[in-house]
Every structure is written in structure tokens, then in C-alpha cells.
Amino acid sequence: MRDAKSSATSRRNLLLGTAAAGALFAAGCTSNENNDSDGNSKPAANTADDKPGKEVTIGFAGPQADHGWLNAINEQAKRRAKEYQDVTLESTEGSNDTAQQIGQIETLINKKVDVLVILPADGKALTQVGLKAMRAGIPVVNLDRVFASAQAYRCWIGGDNYGMGLNAGHYIGERLKGKKNAKVIELAGIDNLELTRQRTAGFDAALKNYPNIEKVGRQAAEFTVESGQSKMAQLLQAHSHFDALWNHDDDQGVGAERAIKQAGRDDFLMVGGAGAKRAMDTIKADNTVLKATVLYPPTMAASAIDLARALGQGKGVGGLAELEIPASLTLYSAVVTKDNVDEYLPTGFS
Q1: Lowest mean pLDDT across 3-12, 135-144, 180-189, 277-286
Q2: DSSP letter string over 227-276?
Q3: What DSSP letter does each residue of 43-76 carry, written as one string?
Q4: Does residue 18 carry a pLDDT above 60?
Q5: H-run or E-run covering 289
Q6: Distance CA 79, CA 143 (A)
Q7: Under 8 Å CB-to-CB from 292, ≥6 apart: which residues?
Q8: Domains 18-159+298-331 and 161-295 share a fold
Q9: Which DSSP symbol is given to 33?
Q10: How does pLDDT run across 327-342, given as a tens digit for each residue?
Q11: Signal peptide position in this chain (predicted)?
Q12: Domain ranges of the chain
């Protein structure tokens, strides 16, 4: 599954919503030059846009599609590349095996691609191959799971795991703020992953703002349907009453919802995580305990292709005054509810 930077680093990164990020890459309206006398600014000469430009070959080394979110990452990257007439995508077979992925990336380096987009199976273990690419003059866009050295990539783009927990906690807190002695439970992901610890830390931090709420239970699952069902069943058995559940991942949420249905429970609200289309459809129907999901948008892969194209063409990002693309972009973890689900449904993944 996904890995992440420390929450402190995330706080320093530029925060962008997915819609805003798309607008930045597509627009070409920000100027680095003085305004004309009529008050209109000139488009920056180095701004990336949709018009065909210099041909760019992008090497993409993504994950094995053994999870809905990971499959969406691969699909988003391939779909975005096809939208550009000037982009050729050299894509490897997805792999979660570190040695195999290193070999795949070395093959792309030997092919002398113009730019690399890499979602590493293990950021620390693949740092050296990222450094190798950068030393060979091939800029690297590091996607989500971060390398151990900033020298191994030109730009990092990814999600905000701490922000996911924070926003889930605030949503639940606002829903329960008028309730005395409210109780919440948490169905986490894999505890030995930093991303899971960050999501829990953000959730706990948000709940501190609501003294009427107590977290009374937590189980760590494994981002699978089966684990979601078994761990949720344990939580339900241990807690005869609670008011809200935060589940870190919509895929394991399928199992959690099965356990909830089997137990005949509907006395609490549930918040999911990641932004699966199935979850959004359920939220829109508004006929189960699932009332919201907090995004960890796989659209970051499409934005990574935008960044790689801009790097290959020596251009900046539309909508920003800087001549160069930023070194780091953290996407915002929006909360999707029945009130805004139609806006986010197109980003939902299967």
C-alpha cells in the first residue's frame, strides 16, 4: 500500500485540491513579466499548456494493481498521457517487488526516456535508482511513496495522510458535537505503515477539539475486503454502542459494511477513506451507515504526468508565478458527502 512523508513535512508542502491542480497545469495565464499598460498580464513564455509542443517520452513505473486505488493510479497515468499529442508513455508492468521494479526503472533509464514518473514499491529501497536517473540527467517525478533523499527526485506529488485523519475527525466531530458522551471507533489500515500512523494521528488530533467525544476502540486491518470484514466484526462484538466509525480505506470498507449488515447495526455513522466510486454511490443513495469518504485522490498520477510533461518541455506550471515547477505538491483530502458527491463522482475509482 501507499507510504508517506512525515506529517511535519506535509504541513510545509504546498496544498492543492485535485480540481485546483488540474487548473494549474491546464491554464497558461500567470505571468513572470511586467503588466501591459492596459492592465492585462502577458502569458509566461515557459508556462505549460495543452497545445502540442516538444515531444516528450515519459517512463512510468507504477505499482502492481492489486488494490482498487493502485489500479486507479495506473489507469489515471495512462489516460492522461493519451490526452497529449506530444507525449509518449513507456510504461512498465506494475510490480510490488523491489528488485523487479529497480530492474524495470533501469531499463527505462537505458532507453533514455526524457522524464521518469515513479511510484516506488518501497521508497527507501528505490532511492538509489532514483538517484541514478537524476545523475543521468533524467528528471524524476516521485509519486506518493517518497524516496529517502530529496536528491532522488525533481518533484514529489502525493496525498496527505495526516490531513485525511484530520478531516475525517473534524467531520465526525461536527456531526456529534451536540451529543453528550459520544463514542467513536477506528478501523485502521496496516499499522507498520507510516501512512496508517499518520491517519490515526490526524484523527486523534481533530478529536481533541471535541471534549464530548471519546475514541473507545481501534482495530488495524490490511486494506483488504476480508480483513475489513473480520476486524469490523471484532469491533462490533466488543462495542455494543458507539456513534461513529472512521474506516481508513474504502476497499476494506466493503468488508466492514458486510460485517455491519450481518450484525444488523445501523445506530452510527461511518466515514470511509480514499474515494472509491462504490463508496460515493452509496453515499449518494444515503441508505446505509456510510455518510462520507475522505479523498486520497488517485488523480495525483494524472497530475504527475502533467508535471513530467512540463519538465520535459522545460516549462513551468500555469497559474503559478514561478519559472519552475514546485519541488513538492500535497493534494488536499476533501470530505465527500451527499451534498457534494456529484462533484467528486468523476474522480471515483473502481
Answers
A1: 3-12
A2: HHHHHHHHHHHH-S--SEEEES-HHHHHHHHHHHHHHT--SSEEEEEE-B
A3: PPTTB--SS--S-EEEEEE-----SHHHHHHHHH
A4: no
A5: none
A6: 16
A7: 168, 171, 269, 271, 272, 283, 335, 336, 337
A8: yes
A9: S
A10: 999 999 999 999 999 9
A11: 1-26
A12: 18-159+298-331, 161-295
**Most confident option among 67-71, 134-138, 320-324:** 134-138
pLDDT at 150 over 50: yes
CATH fold label, 18-159+298-331: Rossmann fold (3.40.50)
Q: Which residues contact 223 (CB under 8 A, 6 or more apart)?
A: 1, 67, 189, 190, 248, 249, 251, 252
Q: Which three cell numbers stand for residue 189?
A: 489500515
* CATH class of the domain whose range is 161-295: alpha beta
What distance in Å separates the CA atoms of residue 235 and residue 217, rounded to the nearest whole number? 7
**193: closest CA among 252, 276, 122, 130?**
122
pTM attached to this predicted model = 0.82
CA dihedral 158, 328, 59, 321 (to 10 degrees): 120
Element (H, E) at 185: strand 182-188
Q: Are strands 155-158 and 182-188 parallel, antiparallel or unpaired?
A: unpaired
